[in-house]
Amino acid sequence: MTANAISARIPEYVDEHRLELTGAERAALRTMAEELAATASGLVDEPGWLARARELSCRLPARLLDAVRAYRHDPGAQGTLIVAGLPIDEDALPDTPGVPESVERHATIPAATATLIGLQLGEIVAYREEKSGALVQNVVPVRGLESSQSNAGSVELEFHVENAFHPCRPDFVGLTCLRQAQGRPAGTLVSSIRHALPLIDDADREVLHQPRFVTAPPPSFHSGEPTAAHPVLDGSPEDPNICVDFNATVALDDEAKQALERLRQTLIDTSVSVELRSGEMVFVDNRIVLHGRADFTPRYDGRDRWLQRIFVHLDGRRSRVHRTRNGAVMA
Ligand SMILES: O=C(O)CCC(=O)C(=O)O
Ligand SMILES: [Fe+2]
């Protein structure tokens, strides 16, 4: 099917939300991030710091607020929001961390910037059982974990919905690029069910809407139980949500297995590579978009690919039962 035939069959969504900040907007954002870096305690995970970040986030540049609001209203066909021109100075960064489970506890300019934007999209959350519950997590290659199906690996990372097994998985995943991979770019791969759906036949859609799949926690989680049987597609048949991790979801019968394999292939065929450069950030709508990563070759020389990740929920009340003392971390 040609691209035109595909677009004729899907509703008219914005395809990709994208904003390039002007020099003046970048300077304004830098001033806010610097103020936050100097706000006690200077620690991202501390409730007082986060409260100040939430206040300041209301004063982001107007075009950025507009872009975030439009994306929240409707994430578009590709389900991504890309913001370019963030105040990140690659030459001023320390070496790319190389240790397992690395997180950013300090209110650095990149961490503060992502937090400010994320707090306008929704509520920033984390999971105690993953990366010690830090709100800003480093996505870096780790020596010895090359073949791991986690963000510490460097082999191709299978398409997944983030924490697909979890009843309160993120609504959005935000990835900020501090440092691009050396040599060949290592793209974050995204694939939207809104692009893939027209290519899935009716029989497969019906199977995928039935609770014939089970999903286990990803390797980054220290504990957690596999789900009960769940559907992969859910909600509106013409614009469904998707919940699957091709490294962690298994079909419970042969027919479901075949439908799942065809879905995987269709999502690969309709995927897009987002090759972030330093100072660019992408949000993926984790309800309609799967993400993964191309393979790459780390050098472990302090100049490797370095992203930072945040998770965003739209409805804090829904996760309240998992969050102790009404904090940001789910138990
Ligand atoms: O490295 C990437 O581009 C994405 C990795 C990933 O899936 C994640 O950090 O959740
Ligand atoms: Fe992921």
Q: Overview of this structure, please?
A:
Helix 7 (202-208) packs across helix 8 (254-269). The chain is α+β, with helices and mostly antiparallel strands and 331 residues long. Strands 1, 2, 3, 4, 6, 13, 15 and 16 form an eight-stranded mixed sheet that branches. The relative contact order is 0.20. The protein has helices at residues 3-9, 23-37, 47-57, 62-73, 109-121, 193-196, 202-208, 254-269, and strands at residues 17-20, 80-84, 123-127, 137-139, 157-160, 172-179, 188-192, 213-215, 233-234, 241-242, 249-251, 272-274, 280-285, 289-293, 306-313, 329-330. The protein has one domain (15-330): Clavaminate synthase-like (Double-stranded beta-helix). The model has no long low-confidence stretch (mean pLDDT 95). Residues 139, 151, 157, 162, 173, 175, 188, 291, 293, 307, 309 line the site of 2-oxoglutaric acid. 2-oxoglutaric acid binds at residues 139, 151, 157, 162, 173, 175, 188, 291, 293, 307, 309.
